[in-house]
Design goal:
Layout (H helix, E strand, L loop, with lengths): L1 H41 L7 H25 L1 H19 L5 H25 L8 H20 L27 H7 L1 H13 L2 H13 L6 H11 L7 H16 L1 H8 L6 H10 L4 H27 L2 H12 L5 H20 L11 H43 L1
Helix pairs in contact: 1-16, 2-16, 4-5, 4-7, 5-13, 7-13, 8-12, 10-11, 10-12, 11-13, 14-15
Length: 405
């Protein structure tokens, strides 16, 4: 009897071991297939396969428009309410009366805030690419306001033309009255709106992970797949990046609101992982968004704003230019264009509408071209990203057809 029992147990053990091996081999083949599909998609870029990339980009654009139209139709009540409000504002805008001054003030403030919120969203989302709009727009804006405040001796720039063009007030001011707090208050609205935009841009990973956890479906997102793989391999993590990601995940999961606030309050390239973690572990929406909004729009923005203002303060800028001149041999030749650029900016601040000098400073020319290149790279990245998204649709369709066969 004992022998028969032992002989019965042996096939069961072998069958269990065989099932485990089959499971491991299936997981391995699935990962290999995902890796192969990912490499195939990443090869779909404009400089390698321009015709296919543009073709897929146009098809993905049409599909996105179709999806957005369907979603708007599902929320037609809200769309109708927005159209009614827009119609009422249009009537108030076109009707003459004493209310026009308030309408114009609201229009100006709304467009100004929407501009910076949109740039903040682009910085976080960027259709999967990320346009670093702080370096391109907000940082230079804060720097120009700082330089103008010290040069004019006042932050009372007339409107118009500010913010399109900063011109010193005619009555002038006292440079001693300029402080860090006065400059910070001058750019507070733009900075906070940009920070709020970056917080809004963190919501898609949160909603995607939350929906995937609640429905139990396999989400169409590579970051979420990497997050699940990271959770599975948490014990054997050795490299620094994986350990850093795990640290963010543990902080957000265990500390909650204050952990999210800490991650959002510092420049953190891994914050997307915080959104996915909060969605995966079903952290309440207002806990996640409230901490993110406070961290990015208030704490982090004041830190970044203070850094830019201190860096571009008048005495520090002059010290930097003098330091450049002290470099042996190349110093004076490098110092000259910087001095010319600063002098040109001072002339612009004191003479509105003046003609630009014939010998335009090469430093400003280089900066303009760098900005142009970065914007072009961003546009190309959008095209590549959307083409790769359509390629992923085709791969998923192919795999689903293979399963049904």
């Amino acid at each position: 009897m004992a022998a028969n029992g032992a002989s019965c147990e042996q096939p069961q053990k072998r069958a269990g071991a065989k099932d485990k091996l089959n499971g491991k081999s299936a997981d391995l083949s699935l990962r290999e297939r995902r890796q192969k599909d990912k490499e195939e998609r990443l090869s779909l870029v404009l400089w390698r396969r321009p015709v296919t990339t543009l073709h897929y980009f146009l098809l993905e654009t049409l599909l996105k428009l179709k999806e957005w139209t369907f979603k708007l139709w599902q929320r037609r009540g809200i769309v109708f309410l927005c159209l009614v409000l827009c119609s009422l504002f249009s009537i108030a805008y076109s009707t003459e009366g004493e209310h026009q001054q308030y309408v114009q003030y609201l229009e100006k403030k709304f467009l100004w805030c929407a501009y910076w919120v949109g740039l903040g969203i682009l910085s976080s989302v960027g259709l999967g690419t990320g346009l670093h709009t702080f370096l391109l727009y907000l940082g230079p804006h804060i720097a120009s306001v700082t330089l103008a405040a010290y040069e004019c001796g006042s932050t009372d720039f007339p409107e118009p033309p500010y913010p399109d063009q900063i011109v010193c007030p005619e009555d002038g001011g006292m440079e001693d009255t300029i402080s860090l707090f006065s400059i910070m208050s001058k750019v507070r609205l733009e900075a906070c709106m940009w920070g709020a935009g970056t917080a809004i841009g963190e919501l898609p990973p949160y909603f995607m992970a939350r929906a995937a956890r609640q429905s139990g479906a396999d989400p169409d997102d590579e970051d979420y797949e990497e997050f699940e793989e990271m959770l599975e391999q948490a014990e054997g993590a050795q490299d620094f990046v994986t350990r850093a990601k795990l640290g963010v995940q543990h902080m957000v999961q265990k500390v909650g609101f204050f952990g999210i606030l800490a991650c959002a309050s510092i420049p953190n390239p891994l914050f997307d992982l915080a959104g996915i973690t909060c969605g995966h572990f079903l952290v309440p929406f207002w806990t996640f968004f409230g901490a993110t909004l406070i961290g990015k729009a208030i704490i982090k923005m004041h830190i970044q704003k203070l850094f830019v203002i201190i860096t571009f303060s008048k005495h520090i800028v002059e010290q930097m230019v003098s330091l450049i001149g002290s470099v042996p041999k190349l110093g004076p030749s490098l110092q000259k264009p910087f001095r010319q650029y600063l002098e040109a900016q001072r002339n612009k601040l004191h003479h509105a509408g003046g003609s630009a000098p014939a010998d335009e400073n090469w430093l400003s020319w280089v900066f303009e071209k760098v900005v142009l290149v970065m914007v072009c790279y961003f546009v190309i990245s959008i095209v590549n990203s959307m083409a790769q998204s359509y390629a992923k649709r085709l791969q998923q369709l192919r795999h689903s057809e293979e399963k049904t066969k």
